[in-house]
Design goal:
heterodimer, A: 255 residues, alpha/beta, 8 helices, globular, B: 300 residues, alpha+beta
Chain lengths: 255, 300
């Protein structure tokens, strides 16, 4: 499972450089906690209804449910792109509702995000796309110079660093996006249908990568529609239906 | 927080190059409007200079009744001397008045032959202590009520006229400048908003990976600042140039109308202060404008 010598070397280099996150200071084993969280959008659209759940550090969790069941809203709430109307959300032991807006960027530095549409910058190369994520949070150049090649090796794109996103396959683009999300060693990786645009074989490759990232201790929360992935991985499954958590199963399947 | 300076500079450069037409448009608008602001300020200074100069030469001429007796004339003279506003006075008799009359009308012999010395009134020329318009007018009204005085004239009207004219010009220029400054501000806001719009994908990613608001905002504000500074620089250069041309023109030609204008020349230190002021206005407008423009895009 993705254990080429090159990838292993890359991993060794990263762990030596692994930055200590300020949020980890609490040493809470509880990474994400939702307490009676509800989110209602304009026009009484209920996206989340009294959601409660605990996710421990290092867990891999699938978020399943039909479109419009609140999966994406939940992910956006964790990232503080949206605020809940009711309830509290704790990330690494901190109530993010009490985070002042200027601190939100620092929360996001501990949360990597991967989306269905990759959100890559088309005018930048693979290397620049990943380096950009470190550059804009003020990481020094020597850190960027070592971290970016290492992470690109980890995701298996060491040979394509100079290509632009439109010269890559969908799977490769998603790898770039994962590299960007993970290059800063976040505590949590949120993935909103990361395989939504990919064929099954490519999806398997992406899932191996996410699994690998999960094994470094990163908590992964992945919203998905992909039945076969959920059924194969047999990880914790949280099912949403019209905004309510209707199932929370330790080694679950899609249905 | 450690700000990556080279990143900021690079981004600002890219932004400036992205939309050259809009960039040039806002730079020129800032330049022209600030130049007008500067010109109106300098004109105001010049008008002040000119008034001060004219006031130095203000005289009050007290024309006496043609049939005045010597005793009456002496009593008017004593009355003038007793006034605390008066610095000194001199008597102009009929011969002296005729000589002046002939000098004034030397090009029209008809006028000279029409009058002789005995037809002209005698007068006192009075130099006031304080040449401000108010005190001159006060002196004028006190003297004109004295018996034996035919009429009192002073050059305050000319000063008044110059002041009114320059006030009008200054206000007009200032109003135009304010309108243009507003246009410049809106143009900067628009330019920066376009730049932010063109880069909304990047801004989205920056927010996603946890770039701070200021980190996102600063390159755009630097872009605005660069436009403001270049525009203000142009305006300052224009103001210097204007003053230079004005001075050169005036000192090389010597007709009498020009010497009047010469009093409008302001000294270099005024021009420098004005230029600094223009730079400050340019910086404030551009930073405020671009900060406002990009604010909406970076709110978390």
């Amino acid at each position: 499972m993705l254990t080429s010598p090159a990838a292993r070397a890359g991993e060794a280099r990263q762990s030596a450089l692994r930055p200590l996150s300020p949020l980890i200071a609490g040493r809470s084993a509880l990474m994400i906690k939702l307490e009676n969280v509800s989110k209602v959008f304009k026009g009484d659209v209920v996206a989340l209804r009294n959601a409660n759940c605990d996710i421990q550090k290092g867990e891999f969790v699938f978020l399943v449910g039909p479109s419009g069941s609140g999966k994406s809203t939940l992910i956006r709430l964790l990232n503080k792109e949206e605020q809940p109307n009711i309830g509290r959300i704790y990330v690494a032991g901190k109530d993010i509702g009490e985070l002042s807006s200027w601190k939100v960027p620092f929360l996001r530095r501990n949360i990597g995000c991967v989306y269905q549409d990759y959100k890559l910058l088309t005018n930048k190369t693979v290397y620049e796309n990943v380096a950009f994520a470190l550059e804009v949070i003020g990481r020094p150049r020597h850190v960027i110079k070592t971290q970016v090649p290492a992470i690109l090796e980890l995701v298996g794109l060491a040979k394509k660093t100079k290509n632009r996103p439109d010269e890559l396959s969908g799977g490769e683009q998603q790898r770039v996006s994962i590299a960007r999300a993970f290059v800063n060693r976040p505590l949590i990786l949120l993935a909103d249908e990361p395989t939504g645009n990919l064929d099954p074989a490519t999806s398997v490759g992406i899932m191996r990568l996410l699994d690998r990232i999960n094994r470094t201790g990163t908590t992964v929360l992945m919203a998905t529609h992909d039945r076969s992935i959920v059924d194969t991985m047999r990880r914790r499954v949280i099912e949403l239906d019209r905004g309510a958590i209707v199932r929370d199963q330790a080694r679950g399947v899609y249905e | 927080m450690a700000m990556n300076l080279s990143y900021m500079v690079r981004e600002t450069g890219t932004n400036l190059k992205r939309n050259p037409t809009l960039t040039v448009a806002s730079v020129l608008t800032i330049g022209v409007s600030l130049f007008l602001v500067g010109a109106s300020l300098l004109l105001g200074d010049g008008a002040k200079n000119a008034t001060r100069r004219f006031q130095g030469g203000v005289e009050v001429v007290v024309f006496l009744d043609p049939q005045i007796s010597d005793a009456q004339r002496d009593s008017v003279g004593a009355f003038i001397d007793a006034n605390p506003l008066v610095k000194k006075k001199s008597y102009v008799d009929k011969q002296a008045a005729y000589k002046e009359y002939k000098r004034l009308f030397k090009d029209s012999p008809d006028m000279i032959s029409a009058l002789s010395a005995k037809d002209l009134p005698t007068s006192f020329t009075v130099v006031p202590n304080d040449a401000t318009i108010d005190s001159v007018e006060q002196l004028q009204s006190v003297l004109s009520q004295r018996p034996g005085v035919y009429r009192v004239e002073a050059s305050t009207d000319a000063v008044r006229k110059i002041q009114r004219l320059s006030a009008l010009l200054t206000t007009g220029l200032a109003l135009t400048a304010v309108c243009l400054l507003a246009a410049a501000l809106l143009l900067i806001i628009n330019t920066i908003r376009m730049a932010a719009l063109a880069r909304r994908r990047e801004i989205e990613v920056m927010k996603l990976v946890g770039a701070t608001n200021w980190f996102i905002r600063v390159p755009f504000m630097l872009e605005g600042l660069a436009q403001g500074l270049v525009g203000a620089g142009l305006a300052a250069a224009g103001v210097f140039g204007l003053n230079r041309v004005f001075k050169d023109r005036l000192t090389t030609s010597s007709s009498s109308g020009i010497t009047l204008l010469q009093s409008f020349v302001v000294d270099q230190s005024h021009v420098i202060t004005t230029s600094i002021l223009l730079l400050v206005i340019g910086v404030v407008i551009s930073v405020v404008g671009s900060g406002f423009a990009v604010g909406r895009f970076v709110d978390v």
